Amino acid sequence: MGDLFIDVVREAFTPTTAAFALAAVGLNFHFGLTGLLNMGQAGFMLLGMYGFAITIREGGPIWLGVIVALVLAMVFGLLLGWPTLKLRGDYLAIVTIAAAEMVRYLGRSQNFNALTGASTGIRGNEFKEPFEQLSPFPDRMVDVGPFALHGARSTSWWLVVVAWALVAILVVIFWRLSRSPWGRVLKGIREDEDAVRSLGKNVYSYKMQALVIGGAVGALAGVVWSLGASVQPDSMGRPTTFWVWTLLLLGGAATIFGPVLGSIIFWCSLVLVKGLAAMWIPDSVLSQQQLEPFSLVLVGVTLMCLVIFRPQGVLGDKRELAFND
Amino acid sequence: MTDTNPFANTLHEPGAAKEDPIIIADHVLRRFGGLTAVDVDHFEVQRHAITALIGPNGAGKSTFFNLLTGFDKPQRGEWLFNGTSMKGISPAKVARAGKVRTFQLTKALNRMTVIENMRLGAAGQRGENLFAAFLPSLWRQREAEITEKAHELLHRFTLYEKKDDFAGSLSGGQRKLLEMARALMSEPEMVMLDEPMAGVNPALTESLLDHIVKLKNEGVSVLFVEHDMHMVRRISDWVVVMAEGRIIAEGPPDTVMKNAEVQEAYLGVHHDTDLSEESSS
Known about the structure:
heterodimer; A: mainly alpha; ABC transporter involved in vitamin B12 uptake, BtuC; two-stranded antiparallel sheet; B: six-stranded mixed beta sheet; 10 strands; 36% helix; globular
């Protein structure tokens, strides 16, 4: 039981949780502020991974890798937004979900084997080295309280610090922007585009800005993820996008800390459910391999209940529900 | 009414020339497939006056409204606002040029507070630029000015007490008031009101009417679409009647309703009915 508790707390600060929090901050620019239905956040993340990993594998410095990741995602955003942002919201949803799948399929295609490593992806030791060498922590396992992580390699204390620092920076940026007149225009667009148009604002341009910024944040999430694991196109399929959506709605769309809290609750409850199931359900009923899908189902049901009984999310404003039309 | 009636020399006929027009439209044609929604040869709106655009359902009033504000594009036609062509201009630019509209179905921004709705209406806020947004010192002072103006307008439209409520929690009539107040934040030269009275309870109607008259007295030109003949008669200086996409009559409110063509178009089968009875009910 104590071990399980430690596992759950560990999950709260792993780089994966941070990566999902980042992706959800990006989606919060899209959906929370502007009302854009981006169903392809995983595509932005995957482009970020590829941009970062390939640049470094080919000998580029870390800063260049990050810039390539950001630029790729921004160009992707511009390309998707250009034809769709003038149309109704649903079109963006359709185009983004298809485009994200296209990125994944192109990435895993044998034709690009030399560049992307096809379906195997890019292994960690091909691109993680420069980042890991920057670690100020010792190059061995380090115990902090009950938690043991490596000082520099892969899912390391170093990556934990960098990932959560990034989360903090982006939460501050989101806070600043969402409470500025710029953010006010985006919220207006979320509520009614035509009204904002009639007040003299260039709606198309604002939607594009939101799409590009949120996509760039998604790319950063991809970079963090790849440093904790590897570049694997199939880990960035549709489920990843839906998880990002789930934890954003769970935490509360348009709130400052919603994405972070949502990510922590989501991943911790997954570990908790899995752990409890392993403890209480005998092997004859559910085998070890069935535990993972079972806990996902259980978490899904819990989330459904949450969304039904608290649709504004954990941090959302109850007053908003009074006039949902 | 002002001392000198600007319509004294205006002919009572469709497409009449005005003394000092703020809008001039020529040969505006809008077809939806085989249906001709708007086909207006010539149309002028007098500056500093309240002009009503009336007509039966399906007359093309709202479509014409959308065309004039850039929300829809015609097959052909030309129109000027303050002497500048507005053809092919985006709705946002039309608004920035000083012509702000409201909507038939009120567009209050529900999940934003009343005061935020108002602030959004203001022009010239540099903080609406992405990069400037990072530096509050660049926009804080303008924000204070905007907020002060918003408070002033909210007082006038009796919404001040509601300023921190979500716009979605207001009643239908209050939302109409909010929409009108928000349109005034940018100090437009002209406001275009699409059925300002639709769905407003009688108690609020009077105050809405007063607000529109006050606008005129402040030098704002008003063009509005309306069904309620009582209201048209009360506040408008000039009435333009549309039917089947065309302008069929123009004139002061008292005389235009006596026009036989208008009666036929407007009242259809009931054109025998006494008009005064119709409107006093």
